[in-house]
Write a structure and sequence with these properties.
Chain A: Residues 4-240 form the ABC transporter domain. The complex is a heterodimer of chains A (668) and B (358). With 668 residues, chain A is of the alpha/beta class. Helices cover 76% and strands 0% of the residues of chain B. The chains are: A alpha/beta (668), B mainly alpha (358).
C-alpha cells in the first residue's frame, strides 16, 4: 500500500470544488511531480494531501489511515511540508530556523535534545548549509534560502516530503540546485517526495512519476517519458509544442510554440494540430523532417511502419534449409533437441544508422524461429561469426564457410550428441584465414514472425553496432565486427551462435541482468553496453526505479530509449573527456560514499588484470532491494567495481560487473 | 524498502553522536541564551534603579538613610507611610502593569507579524477602556468586576477586528485599518459616555483614561499580581508556538501546529494581559506598542516575550519617575509621558515601514 494516497478527493475553499473526486497514489521512495496550468488545483491538491485542507469529499490516506483522524503533530512526524512562500522571521539564523523543524518532536516539557541537534546537523549536511549555519536567513541568496527551508523540512525527519513550487522566484541555476538537493535526498534517504512544479521540462527531468492535472482532475500519470507528449502538453497547458529527447538528460524536452518568433513551418503544423511525436523504436533512424499526422500514426499499416521497404526484405530471405540426408547412426539427432547452443543462419534484412557511432543491423532468417531465451532478450549475448575478409562473397552461405561443424549446429540439422559441445575448440582449430572472427554482441530486440513491427516473414533480431572506425588510406580500419557492420548491406549473410529457445529459458547463461526482487536498480555502461541497457530498459516493469547511465561518444549518439519503469535515463556525451570518466563521476554521484562509520565498507576487491583475463563478475537472483549492472570497457568497469565495493561498501552480490571489451585488445 | 532507505537508516543509527563540528554550534546556542538572559538581568536592574531614583530624587525625596530604615521595618515618621502606602504599591503596580502591557503587545505584534499591531494601536485597548468606563460610570464597578469588564470589552473588540481582517489571513494594512476604525468608534463612545455623566464621576474616569498609577494600592497590586501569576507562565508555551506560527500558517501547520486554535489562544492570552492591566491603571498609552520593538533591539533581533515584559515594566517605572519630575509644579499622569514617548516612535515605525514597502 502506498504511504500516501487520495481516494475520490474533492477539495474546495467555500465555493466550487478545485480538486474534483481525484484518486492518486504516491509511489513510495520515488519523486512524484505534479504539473499543470495555473489554477489547475495542483497547490490545493498538495495542501489537501498535507492535511492543511479538510476534504469536501473523499479522503486522504496516510499509511492506510484517514489523515484527518490523526493528530496534527503525529502527521507532522510522518509528513513534512514546505509551502510556496514561507516567511522567515527577521534576523533569524539558519541554524535556528532549521531547528524549528524539530517542533513536532518536542513536547510541552521535552526540551532541545542531542537527538534534535543531530537531526539538524544531518539536514544541514545533506543540503550543504553547514557553512551558512550562523548567518541570518534574510541575507542569503534565493537558492541558499530555499535550501535552508528544505533543511528545515528535513530536520523534521519524515518519510514523506511535500514541496509546493520550491523553485519559484529562483534563477535557473538555483532551480537546479534546489531540485538536485531534493533528488539527492530521495536517493540517499529514500524519502518519498511530492513536488508541485510549473516548469514542465525540469519536472520531466527530475520526476520518477509525473502527474498532470487539469481542472482538478488527473489527465495523465506515469513516467515522464510516457506522460510528456505533444498532445498532453497541448491539452494540459493549451500550448502547442514540440517534444524532443533532452540531449542532456534523455528525458522529454518540451519546446513551446507561441504565436511569434517561431519558424513558420512549425506554427503552421501546430495550428493544424499535427504532431511530430513518433512511435518509440519504429522510426529512430527515419528522416526527421518527414512528418506524420496523428491520424497517419494510428492508421498506418504495420509493415510500412519502418524504414526498409518490404520488397528488399523478401529478396533477402535466406533459402530454406536443405535437410541433411538421414544417417543410420542412432546417435544423430536433430540439433534443436539436444544442443542448447545453436547456429542460426541469417541474412541482413535492413540496416539503419542510428547515429554517427551506432548502426543497427536487422538479421532475419527461418532459423531464428528457434532462437530465444525467455520473453525478452534483455542483455542476451550472442556470437557473431564474422566471415573472413578473404571470403569469396559476403552473400555466400555462412555455414558453408565454416564447414560442417557449424552446419550441424543449425536447427533442423542432424547432430551427433557428442558434438553438441566443444564447438569453440573446433572453431579454434580451423585455419585462421578461413574461420574469420568471432565477436560477442547483445541482442537489442527480438521480433518473432508476425510481430507488429516485423519487416519480413521470419523472426528477426536487431543488433546495434558501435562503429569505432577510422578511415586510413581509403580503407576502413577497426574491429572486424565494426568493419563488417559498417559495410553490411541487405542480403549479406551472418552466422549467429545463440540460445536454443526450446532448451533455454530466462536462466540462460548469456543473460546477466538478474535483478531478482530489487526495486531500485542502476544500469551503467559505455556505448558498447548501450544496446543492452536500452533493451533492459524496455523490459523493465513499472514500479522499478533507479538510474540508467550511458556514456556515448557524442551528443549525436544519444538514442531513443523507452521504458515503462521509473528508471531515469541519463545519456552522457563524452566529447573530449577520457573514456569512462563521466560515467564514473555519474556513478559516484548516485552511489555516494556513506559518511565515515555509517557502513562497513568492503575490503579492496581482489585485483583483476584486465589485460590478461576477462573481468566478469555476475550475480545470481538476488533478494536485495538494490541491484546494479555495469558493463563496458574492462578497465573502466574495474575502476567502478573498486569504487562500489571498496568505497561505497556495496555487497558484490548485488552488482554485475562485465568487461565487454578491453581498450586496445580484441576478443578471441 | 529500497537499499537507499536502508542505507539511510543505517546512516542514522550509526552516525557517531558527538561530532566535533557540533561544539562551536552548541556554544553559540547557549551563548545566545545567555545574551537574552543578560539583557533580562540588565532590564531588571534598570527597573530597580528607576524605582530607587524615584524614591530618592523624585518629588518629595526620601533620605537614603530614612529609606533603609523604613524598608527595614522601622517607623520613620512621614517616610514610612509615604513609602509603604503610596510609593511601593505604585511601583509594584507599575512593574506588573508594564510587564502585562509589554508581553501583550509583543504577542500581538508577532502573531500578526506587524510592529503596528499592538493592542493599543489596533483598538483592543480601547475596547477595554470603553467597557471599563461604562462599568465605572453606570455600575460603579471596581476591582475584579472592572477587570472582567475590561477583559470582555477587549476580547469583543479583538474578535471583531480579527473577523473584519478575514481570519488573520490579511495581517497587514487591512487589519491595522480595521483596528484604527474600531478605535475611533470606541473613542467616540467613550467621549459620549463621559459627556452624559456627572462631572465628578467623569473626571475620575477621565484621569483613569489617561493612565495613572496614583490610585495604586496594595489591594490593586495584589489583584493584578494574582492575575499575572496565572497569565505570565503561559508566556512559555505561547513563545514556543509563536516561534512556529511566525514561519507562516502553512509551514506551521506542516510542522504539526493547530494554527486556528493556537492563534485564538494567543489572542485570548494577549487580550487578558491587556485587560487586567488596563482595569487597574487605565490605558497606559503606547507601552504595549513600544515594549516589543525595544526588546527586539536590546536582544539584537531575537524576539523574546520575557524581555518584552521586562521592557514594559522598565518603561512604566521610568515614565513614573519622569511624570513626577519633569514639570516642577504639577505631577503628570504616567500615561501622558508614555504617550509622549510613543507618538514619535509610532511615526518613525510608519516612516520605516513605508520605506521598506511592506
Amino acid at each position: 500500500m502506498a504511504l500516501l494516497q487520495a481516494e475520490d478527493l474533492t477539495l474546495a475553499y467555500d465555493g466550487p470544488s478545485i480538486v474534483d473526486e481525484l484518486s492518486l497514489e504516491i509511489p513510495a521512495g520515488e519523486v512524484t511531480i505534479i504539473v499543470g496550468a495555473n489554477g489547475c488545483g495542483k497547490s490545493t491538491l498538495l495542501r489537501g494531501l498535507a492535511r492543511l485542507l479538510k476534504p469536501a469529499g473523499g479522503k486522504v490516506l496516510l499509511d492506510g489511515e484517514d489523515i484527518h483522524t490523526r493528530g496534527a503533530r503525529e502527521v507532522a512526524k510522518m509528513l513534512g511540508l514546505l509551502p510556496q512562500t514561507p516567511t522567515a522571521p527577521d534576523g533569524i539564523t539558519v541554524r535556528e530556523l532549521i531547528g524549528r523543524g524539530r517542533y513536532p518532536h518536542q513536547g510541552w516539557f521535552k526540551r532541545w535534545s542531542a537527538q534534535d541537534e543531530d537531526a539538524v546537523e544531518r539536514a544541514m549536511t545533506l543540503t550543504s548549509t553547514v557553512e551558512l549555519a550562523e548567518r541570518a536567513v534574510d541575507e542569503l541568496s534565493g537558492g541558499q534560502r530555499q535550501r535552508v527551508w528544505i533543511a528545515m523540512a528535513l530536520a523534521q525527519e519524515t518519510e514523506l516530503l511535500l514541496l509546493d513550487e520550491p523553485t519559484t522566484y529562483l534563477d535557473v541555476a538555483h532551480q537546479l540546485e534546489v531540485l538536485d538537493v531534493i533528488s539527492e535526498l530521495n536517493r540517499s534517504r529514500g524519502t518519498t517526495v511530492v513536488i508541485v512544479l510549473h516548469d514542465l521540462n525540469l519536472a520531466a527531468r527530475y520526476a520518477d512519476h509525473l502527474v498532470a492535472l487539469k481542472h482538478g482532475k488527473i489527465v495523465a500519470a506515469g513516467h515522464p517519458s510516457t506522460v510528456v507528449t505533444e498532445e498532453l502538453v497541448k491539452s494540459v497547458f493549451g500550448m502547442p509544442c514540440r517534444v524532443i529527447p533532452d540531449p542532456v538528460a534523455g528525458t522529454p524536452l518540451v519546446l513551446p510554440i507561441g504565436r511569434h518568433r517561431v519558424l513558420r513551418a512549425e506554427s503552421v503544423l501546430a495550428a493544424n494540430g499535427i504532431h511530430r511525436t513518433r512511435q518509440p523504436d519504429a522510426a529512430i533512424g527515419e528522416d526527421t523532417t518527414s512528418l506524420l499526422t496523428a491520424e497517419e500514426l494510428t492508421t498506418r499499416e504495420p509493415q510500412i511502419d519502418t524504414i526498409t521497404a518490404t520488397d528488399t526484405a523478401t529478396g533477402a530471405t535466406p533459402q530454406s534449409v536443405e535437410p541433411l540426408p538421414v544417417a543410420e547412426d542412432s546417435s544423430l539427432r536433430r540439433a534443436e533437441e539436444i544442443s542448447a547452443m545453436l547456429a542460426f543462419s541469417t541474412r541482413v534484412l535492413a540496416t539503419e544508422d542510428l547515429s554517427a557511432n551506432f548502426k543497427r543491423v536487422t538479421l532475419s532468417g527461418a532459423d531464428l524461429s528457434h532462437f530465444g531465451a525467455g520473453a525478452h532478450p534483455l542483455d542476451l549475448r550472442i556470437k557473431l561469426m564474422i566471415p573472413p575478409a578473404s571470403a569469396a562473397s559476403s552473400t555466400a552461405e555462412p555455414e558453408s564457410v565454416l564447414g560442417s561443424d557449424f552446419a550441424a549446429l543449425r536447427p533442423g540439422a542432424l547432430l551427433n550428441s557428442e558434438d553438441a559441445g566443444g564447438w569453440y575448440k573446433r572453431w579454434l582449430a580451423l585455419p585462421t584465414e578461413s574461420r574469420g572472427d568471432m565477436r560477442t554482441y547483445t541482442v537489442r530486440a527480438l521480433r518473432p514472425a508476425g510481430h507488429r513491427d516485423n519487416l519480413g516473414e521470419h523472426p528477426e533480431i536487431d543488433i546495434d553496432f558501435v562503429l569505432h572506425l577510422q578511415k586510413l588510406d581509403g580503407q576502413l580500419t577497426g574491429g572486424p565486427a565494426t568493419v563488417w557492420a559498417a559495410t553490411a548491406e541487405v542480403g549479406d549473410a551472418m552466422l549467429v551462435l545463440g540460445p536454443n529457445k526450446a532448451l533455454c529459458d530466462e536462466t540462460y547463461g548469456g543473460i546477466e541482468f538478474r535483478p531478482g526482487t530489487a526495486k531500485r536498480i542502476l544500469l551503467a555502461g559505455d556505448e558498447t553496453a548501450a544496446p543492452a541497457i536500452c533493451s533492459i530498459l524496455e523490459s523493465l516493469p513499472a514500479g522499478i526505479t533507479g538510474h540508467a547511465l550511458i556514456e556515448v561518444p557524442d551528443t549525436g549518439d544519444i538514442l531513443g530509449s523507452s521504458t515503462r519503469s521509473g528508471v531515469g535515463v541519463q545519456w552522457l556525451p563524452r566529447g573530449s573527456h577520457p573514456h569512462g570518466e563521466m560515467l564514473a563521476a555519474a556513478v559516484r554521484s548516485i552511489v555516494a560514499i556513506p559518511a565515515a562509520g555509517a557502513v562497513v565498507t568492503g575490503a579492496d576487491p581482489e585485483d583483476v588484470d584486465v589485460d590478461e583475463q576477462i573481468l566478469w563478475e555476475t550475480t545470481t537472483e538476488s533478494t536485495q532491494p538494490f541491484y546494479a549492472w555495469l558493463a563496458g570497457e574492462a578497465s573502466m568497469i574495474k575502476e567502478m567495481r573498486r569504487y562500489l565495493v571498496r568505497n561505497a561498501g556495496i555487497d558484490r552480490k548485488q552488482v554485475a560487473f562485465m568487461g565487454y571489451w578491453r581498450r586496445g585488445k580484441s576478443e578471441l | 524498502m529500497t537499499r537507499a532507505q536502508r542505507g539511510g537508516t543505517k546512516f542514522t543509527a550509526l552516525k557517531p553522536a558527538p561530532v566535533p563540528a557540533l561544539e562551536p554550534a552548541g556554544a553559540q546556542r547557549s551563548g545566545r541564551t545567555i545574551g537574552v538572559g543578560r539583557v533580562n538581568l540588565l532590564l531588571g536592574v534598570g527597573i530597580l534603579l528607576a524605582i530607587a531614583l524615584n524614591l530618592l530624587t523624585g518629588r518629595h525625596p526620601i533620605e537614603f538613610s530614612d529609606l533603609l530604615a523604613a524598608l527595614g521595618g522601622q517607623r520613620v515618621p512621614g517616610v514610612s507611610f509615604m513609602l509603604w502606602e503610596d510609593r511601593l504599591p505604585q511601583a509594584a503596580v507599575g512593574i506588573l502593569a508594564g510587564a502585562a502591557f509589554g508581553a501583550s503587545g509583543a504577542i500581538f505584534q508577532r502573531l500578526l507579524r506587524n510592529p503596528l499591531a499592538s493592542p493599543d494601536v489596533i483598538g483592543v485597548g480601547y475596547g477595554a477602556s470603553a467597557a471599563a468606563v461604562a462599568g465605572m460610570l453606570f455600575f460603579g464597578a471596581q476591582g475584579i468586576g472592572l477587570s472582567l469588564l475590561a477583559f470582555a470589552g477587549a476580547l469583543v473588540v479583538a474578535l471583531v477586528i480579527y473577523v473584519i481582517a478575514d481570519s488573520g489571513k490579511h495581517t497587514g494594512a487591512r487589519l491595522i485599518l480595521a483596528g484604527i476604525a474600531v478605535a475611533a468608534l470606541l473613542q467616540g463612545i467613550i467621549q459620549y459616555l463621559l459627556t452624559r455623566t456627572d462631572v465628578r464621576n467623569a473626571s475620575d474616569a477621565l484621569r483613569w483614561l489617561t493612565g495613572s498609577l496614583s490610585a495604586s494600592t496594595w489591594e490593586r497590586a495584589g489583584l493584578l499580581g494574582c492575575a499575572l501569576v496565572i497569565l505570565l507562565p503561559l508566556l512559555m508555551p505561547a513563545a514556543s508556538r509563536l516561534r512556529i506560527l511566525e514561519l507562516g500558517d502553512d509551514t506551521a501547520a506542516g510542522l504539526g501546529l493547530r494554527v486556528r486554535g493556537t492563534r485564538l489562544g494567543l489572542i485570548i492570552l494577549g487580550v487578558a494581559l491587556t485587560a487586567v492591566a488596563t482595569a487597574v491603571t487605565g490605558p497606559l498609552a503606547f507601552v504595549s506598542f513600544l515594549a516589543g520593538p525595544l526588546a527586539l533591539r536590546l536582544c539584537q533581533g531575537r524576539s523574546h516575550l520575557g524581555a518584552a515584559a521586562l521592557t514594559g515594566a522598565l518603561l512604566v517605572t521610568a515614565a513614573t519617575y519622569l511624570a513626577g519630575n519633569v514639570l516642577p509644579e504639577t505631577p503628570l499622569p504616567v500615561g501622558v509621558v508614555t504617550g509622549a514617548l510613543g507618538a514619535p516612535f509610532l511615526i518613525w515605525v510608519l516612516v520605516r515601514t513605508n520605506k521598506e514597502g511592506t
